[in-house]
Amino acid sequence: MTTSANGNFVRKPFIAGNWKMNMDHVQGITLLQKLAWTLSDATHDYSRVEVAVFPPFTDLRGVQTLVQGDELGVAYGGQDLSQHDSGAYTGDVSGQFLNKLGCAYVLVGHSERRTIHNESDEVLNAKVKAAFRHEVTPVLCVGEGLEIRQAGTHVEHTLAQLRAGVAGLTAEQAAELVVAYEPVWAIGTGEVAGPEDAQEMCAAIRAELASLFDDAVAAKTRLLYGGSVKANNAAAIMAETDVDGLLVGGASLDAAEFANIVRFESHLVTD
Ligand SMILES: O=C[C@H](O)COP(=O)(O)O
């Protein structure tokens, strides 16, 4: 996370909670209410950070009602979308439905979609484009498994996923895109990539975006780290130059813990 001379963030920090397949629609509302209450203290300036939650599809209508009704400063999005707009695709959810529910974001290519549902780079590229078609910002997830990390080819592997995911995007879309680097071996395992590992990959992703598009695009694209993020390691990871945010799984299910991640550093403390 880089700050400019006046102390402002160059890219607005983005702290996202992926609830995965947890929290039914009643539990989801309760969690969001607790989070909103916890984030309503006057000692921090939350306008300096963007907070988003990614609940299951079945929670989205309730989340929309709560967020819009109470004007909570929390964005929300889907955990996946179809590459198609409508039609005979049983079980799939269109980006246009997410848009209509007020989703600002959608996760694309989370490692659990890539591995459990065998989603290919080609399909994920189509999903990224579908998200833009429906004016929902995609959060493209990339990252390597343990064997690839041990073989030392993690940067090459992750950049190949990135190139495939952004193929055919305009420069404007690439600048709006959010990319989440999630080393699969660090997801839900308690194994956290060190801040320097997160920085190494995020710097490589930013350099790749500069080469695929241009420096101005690369300077705007927000890059997140995900994998066993907790309140006690968030600040160190966020201190890295090219890390602009966090994609939090397990710890986002606890409102107090997630709120402490949102308040990762002293820049949010009001005078
Ligand atoms: O989307 C979130 C990531 O998969 C990280 O999950 P985790 O924080 O439970 O390791």
UniProtKB/TrEMBL annotation:
The active site is at H110, E182. Its EC number is 5.3.1.1. One of its GO terms (biological process) is gluconeogenesis. It holds the Pfam family TIM. Keywords: Cytoplasm, Gluconeogenesis, Glycolysis, Isomerase. Its main location: cytoplasm. Pathway: Carbohydrate degradation; glycolysis; D-glyceraldehyde 3-phosphate from glycerone phosphate: step 1/1; Carbohydrate biosynthesis; gluconeogenesis. InterPro entries: Aldolase_TIM, TIM_sf, TrioseP_Isoase_bac/euk, Triosephosphate_isomerase, Triosephosphate_isomerase_AS. The keyword Isomerase applies. Substrate binds at N18, W19, K20, G188, S228, G249, G250. GO terms for molecular function: triose-phosphate isomerase activity. GO terms for cellular component: cytosol. It comes from the Bacteria. Belongs to the triosephosphate isomerase family. Involved in the gluconeogenesis. Catalyzes stereospecifically the conversion of dihydroxyacetone phosphate (DHAP) to D-glyceraldehyde-3-phosphate (G3P). This is Triosephosphate isomerase. It comes from Arthrobacter cavernae. The gene is tpiA.
